[in-house]
Amino acid sequence: MSLCDISSSSYALRRKEFLSLNKQLHAAGAQSELGLPQITVIGNQSAGKSSLLEAITGITVPRDAGTCTRCPIECRLSSSDRPWSCQISIRQEFDNSGERLRNISEKKFGEPLTDKVQVELSLRRAQFAILNPHVPWHNILAASAETLASMSAKSNTSLQFSKNIVCVDLEGPEFTELSFIDLPGLVQNAHPDIVELVENLVISRISGNCIILVTVPMTDDIENQKAFRLARQVDPEGCRTIGVLTKPDMLQSGSSKMLQNWLDVLEGRRHPLQLGYFCTRQPDDDERMDGALPIQAREKEEAFFKNTLPWCNSESSARFGTKRLVDTLSRLLTGFIRDSLPKILSETNERLSKCQEELSTIPPPLKEEPAIYVLSQITRLCSEIQTVVQGSIDTPLIQSHRTKYNMLKLAIRGTAPKFVPFTADENIIWQKDLTDDDDDKDSGDSDYFSDRSKGRSPSAVRSMNLTDVRQYLSRSITRELPNNIPFSATVSAIRDFQKGWPQLIKKCFEEIQILTLKLLMDQINQIFGRFLALQTHIRILAQELSETHRTACALVLSKIIEVEGSPFTQNTHYLQSKTNNWLISPSTPSNDSNNALTPSVDFPYILNMLAQAGIQVSSKEELVGKLSLLDAYEKELKFMAEVRGYYQVAYKV
């Protein structure tokens, strides 16, 4: 099949359909969700990219000193029997801060053009519109090049670069079906932020399902080309990269070594690429100033490669010229699209199924007035919260609270004073757990307290024997009469075991608050989850209300804790009872509180209990002798009993 017949063949028709589909998908923004095929042109600044773009499209692009292309330009060529025409559009894919938009739109920028001379100014206007989104389009479409330059100079809000795209649809009988994106040239001698911005733009566009076309000027070493390095970065195997060597006419005929190096690159002996290299020759500045026509430029290009060494002797003659490059790109892109369609279709069906599944979860529209509906849902929330607070098997808030309260009780029990009714000289390991027998009976959860060793908190009061207590009381005596226990000593001992209570209560309170607030938020999410804005508003109100009650409750707890710090009780009967109990029980050691010693217990049993406590007694007389030693510590034992008795009152209340 010859090149002249390809436009009218069935292959050309299929190619047109493929590229048209790809164009429609890009215009709809499908590239943000699907890996759509495309050709992306990259290159260093002044690499001949603009000249190549003009040669492929036949239009004139803006040329200024420095960087003139500041946003991607997508060129879409289509063969047609109709006369030449050009339609410029703008595709908004990102907002002003560079974040991708959820709804991508492509809008026509002005009327279709039928004169090629008008294209350059229209491209300037379109790029200005992208870089200045705050300026209305109707002010831009009528502006001259001088007006645009003046507006740019005066503006302080213009963007340096943009990811949004100027789309150029070209149609005419001279075109081959092709589409590609031309990116801004990579800069080196600019502010580091600008350099990084352009590099990130290039990398984002050449990653993924993309053929990378790298323009490499032959006036510079290929190792110095940043564009080539970036292409290697995303395509290390060189599977989807095409090199286009530009400016071969600027090489001196005497630079034989440089010419040979570039010939080696072109023929794949150096820096090989699977898709290979092409070499093009474009009009120089003088030829452009003379108004060289595209057909004349292609004729000069053909003659240059045919008559200039070493190109005329190269075995890769099919790799010379813009026409061969365009035909190859068109064929590659068509095949790329064809091969990608099954995957695109699969991804589309998968996302469509997911979307339909999500749509099916949307509840039916409301049948009542919104205000009435909101009121009914708030009433429902209040009713359900009330049910939860009252207690229910389905909503175990109270059960979780009870667990926290029991943990608090256990922790407070662990602060009980540890008094050992022996002197330091006796060196006895006291094994009895000084918990009152009534603790377990009233806990409501015997299993929870079955292991009494768990009753000690890490901050439990240190143990004190009779010697310690005597020294403590001796240091506390001021003006008291002999054999009187200073009340200040009793108060100090009581406060000593209470000093950890505020922190334990605060921890319990915070845990209760977290549990309650979580349940409240879960109920709100369940009832108002359909309306996210309303749900957020209700959550904020609920959190504010919860914080108000938390502050009030914390104040009450603080007052209660403060009152507990002053030793006082009207439960004098219980206090006296516990004090009397502890006056007796410390002198009869046991490691089993359920089998406390009594006068009616047989002496062998007493010996056994004492042995388990670490006390060796061989006769009743020896036992009486040991117990008689306690008479000398009557005051200390009384102090122990009073403090331990008051602890029991404070703990039980």
TrEMBL record:
Keyword annotations: GTP-binding, Hydrolase, Nucleotide-binding
Cross-referenced PROSITE patterns: G_DYNAMIN_2 (PS51718)
MF terms (GO), sorted A to Z: GTP binding; GTPase activity; microtubule binding
Domain Dynamin-type G: 33-342
Source superkingdom: Eukaryota
A Pfam family the protein falls into: Dynamin_N
Record's GO cellular component terms: cytoplasm; membrane; microtubule
Region named Disordered: 434-460
InterPro entries linked to this entry: Dynamin, Dynamin_GTPase, Dynamin_N, Dynamin_stalk, G_DYNAMIN_dom, P-loop_NTPase
Name this protein carries in UniProt: P-loop containing nucleoside triphosphate hydrolase protein
Gene source species: Lentinula raphanica
Lineage: Eukaryota, Fungi, Dikarya, Basidiomycota, Agaricomycotina
